[in-house]
């Protein structure tokens, strides 16, 4: 399932959401491609999605969840990638 949190994370003059999959990175990359997110927006285990694309992500089928649930679901699926493993890109 594709999950997204509210766009509340500031950076580079914008607010950002986190887009994840609790199934696989392949599912996440395919969804991000449909959304029009560039691969450079992928950070370890999630895509950073600008607020301008948040509604489109929901329209495409992403499920809105609180940030804590998003992280918990990533961990439960075994897809959470801590910073010390950041050099390994799936």
TrEMBL record:
Domain named DUF4031: residues: 2-76
Pfam family, one: DUF4031
Lineage: Bacteria, Bacillati, Actinomycetota, Actinomycetes, Micromonosporales
Superkingdom: Bacteria
Protein name in the entry: DUF4031 domain-containing protein
